[in-house]
């Protein structure tokens, strides 16, 4: 297919596809799916070989958020029966993180619900970062605390944070439909603050919220412009008790096409398969490893993922390898650059809430659970790990 040959050539040269080319990937048929995966897989192997980076989530503070992000089980008014707890103590968070590191994770993502941290919260998280780094030599720590005020990114950097996550989630045009308590511009501002403070910026999206193909392409192009080092791709987990509980819009094939499009637009960036992979990709998860070079190990913030051991077996069975702590994730040209990023010719809740979409392009309406692809039985609220007395899944 000419389209795929063009996209592979551009991906190998780190050249931006056109918007029409990105849209055409989303519009390919199921008959062409394996060709699409193979093409994007060539781009993935060029920049990341067969390595898979493992990341581990620790939810420092769960639920009770005053913000109204429609996709989020921790939002204002959510009746989802998630765990609710306030800040974990540094040693509790460190203990949870250690389980992920022991499972092979090289990055720990510290997430807290809320609009953004107070300065006291930044102090708290700084102590947690120190505790984690002391216990786990060489581990990368990413903070995900919401909107940042002036100086907070710098303070987190000084405390040892390596990265900061704040997702754009959806296109600027549809942002107001999913959240009213803050704006798309607020989110862009925080990603820029993190980048400006020398933190590795991580920013991604949530697919399956009823957005059109054009919205998906818009947000991925906006991410490339923002130039994060890592781009998490979440697939909406429609939690009962949230406004998007009936949004079952994704199929495994659609999810793969979305990941392929992100890889073509952001060829040399850490593309991370995030929340919702078990629910939406299901038995096709191993194919996604040909597209992404990074996944979360084990559970998500408020939902349970497949067993950490099953993640490791899937990686090995598919012929990939877990990336070691001493291997740089990003290609040399990005490490050397003053700042990395999605597509420089040259990465929510705050994010991975993990929170579906028909296989048709341009879907913009609501579908009822019970439509093909709806698997509410696979949505499992997290009941173990951080904030509980049970061992974490790692
Ligand atoms: S995504 Fe973050 S800010 Fe929005 S409701 Fe969830 S926890 Fe709050």
From TrEMBL:
Keywords: 2Fe-2S, 4Fe-4S, Biotin biosynthesis, Iron, Iron-sulfur, Metal-binding, S-adenosyl-L-methionine, Transferase. Catalyzes the conversion of dethiobiotin (DTB) to biotin by the insertion of a sulfur atom into dethiobiotin via a radical-based mechanism. It comes from Streptomyces spongiicola. It catalyses: (4R,5S)-dethiobiotin + (sulfur carrier)-SH + 2 reduced [2Fe-2S]-[ferredoxin] + 2 S-adenosyl-L-methionine = (sulfur carrier)-H + biotin + 2 5'-deoxyadenosine + 2 L-methionine + 2 oxidized [2Fe-2S]-[ferredoxin]. InterPro entries: Aldolase_TIM, BATS_dom, Biotin_synth/BioAB, Elp3/MiaA/NifB-like_rSAM, rSAM, rSAM_sf. It comes from the Bacteria. PANTHER family: BIOTIN SYNTHASE, BIOTIN SYNTHASE, MITOCHONDRIAL. The keyword S-adenosyl-L-methionine applies. The keyword S-adenosyl-L-methionine applies. Homodimer. Residues 361-374 have a biased composition (Low complexity). Its cofactor is [2Fe-2S] cluster; [4Fe-4S] cluster. Residues 47-277 form the Radical SAM core domain. This is Biotin synthase. It is an enzyme of class 2 (transferase). Belongs to the radical SAM superfamily. Biotin synthase family. Pfam families: BATS, Radical_SAM. [2Fe-2S] cluster binds at residues 109, 142, 202, 272. Residues 361-394 are annotated as: Disordered. Pathway: Cofactor biosynthesis; biotin biosynthesis; biotin from 7,8-diaminononanoate: step 2/2. Its EC number is 2.8.1.6. Binds 1 [2Fe-2S] cluster. The cluster is coordinated with 3 cysteines and 1 arginine. Binds 1 [4Fe-4S] cluster. The cluster is coordinated with 3 cysteines and an exchangeable S-adenosyl-L-methionine. [4Fe-4S] cluster binds at residues 65, 69, 72.
